[in-house]
Write a structure and sequence with these properties.
With 359 residues, the protein is an alpha/beta fold. Helices cover 44% and strands 10% of the residues. Residues 1-36 and 347-358 have low confidence and may be disordered.
């Protein structure tokens, strides 16, 4: 059956979502949780392609979406930023093929993206794909994004307040984080115990309490899963993955990563902009300021990428729903296709077809 697909022009935007270039909703909308879905209604299907950076998630998603009439919704936090392309290995329009991609290039480098905003945008995009009778693929390596959508997290709709945060950060620097921890313990002892001495978590909890008057611990939780999700995790032996990303870093440098960072700075993007914290960008800043050599900056990119991979692997190991496929094994893409076919038909039978191509 032919699918009704929308061909996207230029940068992909979140489908049917208002104000796609500045996805900040009115403040009041963040205080209230979204309307719960009807628990008696059958959950629609969703395919998740997750895994550490460098495992080939984007290419796999395009191949599988082509086979199953799907569209891709991005779950990589760094793909959201416009102008940050080479360093984050964002798939080009040619690499995306004829598959619609959503939630790519939707915010500027100085804008912040909260988990709550992302969840709203992602679910709106996924629902729009389903309304077009397509199969949504949630694809990316940011575990919090994936889990927030798949598990139906309840997230306080409180937007970040930079001035509030800066004031508390200054107070913590001056008087110590214990002062803030004690203040949080007085209004939300559960979150205080969970946060320990993590200043970022403590400040966020105080921020939520200041807006809502309610403890963060009473606002958080998980709802019924909004989708019937098949979660596929792409894996690779760590030594091979490290070697693979090292080659990719060299390739990104050859493609013009240094020039991309120079152009962003020349365009007025601050070195302190949220997007500049991305791996591949912040490591080049010392080189561009004359504080390090290019070789040292490249080596730092590789080391930090290895560290990030370990962080991702730790998070994904905590997800018992992931069906892991080793992308170094022959036939893994065909196995993924079989999993999706069974997920959609509920036949519970193993397909005998072989993949036409491995990625």
């Amino acid at each position: 059956m032919e699918r009704d697909r929308q061909q996207e022009k230029g940068a992909a935007n979140p489908t049917h979502h208002p104000d796609t270039r500045d996805p900040i909703l009115p403040a009041q909308s963040f205080v209230n949780q979204p309307e719960p879905r009807n628990p008696h209604r059958a959950s629609p299907p969703l395919v998740v392609i997750a895994g550490p950076t460098g495992t080939g998630k984007s290419a796999a998603a395009v191949a599988l979406a082509s086979q199953f009439g799907g569209e891709v919704v991005n779950a990589d936090s760094r793909y959201l930023y416009r102008g940050f392309d080479i360093g984050v290995a964002k798939p080009t329009h040619a690499e995306r093929g004829n598959i619609p991609h959503h939630l790519i290039d939707i915010i500027g480098p100085t804008e912040l993206m909260s988990l709550a905003i992302y969840q709203d945008l992602a679910m709106a995009a996924l629902d729009a794909v389903l309304q077009r009778n397509g199969l949504p693929f949630l694809v990316g390596g940011t575990p919090l994004y994936v889990n927030a959508v798949v598990e139906g997290w309840h997230i306080p709709r409180v937007p970040p307040n930079p001035k509030f945060r800066a004031a508390l950060e200054a107070e913590a620097a001056r008087d110590g984080v214990d002062i803030l921890a004690q203040r949080l313990a007085a209004v939300d002892p559960i979150t205080a115990a969970r946060s320990g001495s993590n200043a970022r978590r403590i400040i966020r909890a105080l921020e939520v309490f200041a807006v809502t008057g309610q403890p963060l611990s009473s606002l958080e939780g998980k709802g019924p899963p909004p989708y019937r999700a098949l979660e596929i995790g792409l894996t690779m032996p760590r030594d091979q993955l490290h070697a693979r990303v090292d080659v990719r870093v060299d390739h990104l440098i050859a493609r013009g990563l240094v020039e991309e960072v120079k152009e962003l700075l020349a365009a007025g993007v601050s070195p302190n902009a949220p997007a500049m914290a991305s791996i591949g960008y912040r490591q080049l800043l010392p080189y561009l300021s004359g504080a390090s050599s290019l070789d040292e900056a490249i080596e730092r990119i590789k080391i930090d990428t290895h560290r990030y991979i370990r962080h991702q692997e730790t998070w994904f190991r905590k997800n018992p729903r992931l069906i892991n496929l080793d992308v170094t094994r022959a036939g893994w893409l065909g196995e993924a296709a079989d999993l999706i076919e069974r997920h959609l038909t509920k036949r519970g039978l193993v397909s005998t077809k072989e993949p036409t191509d491995d990625i």
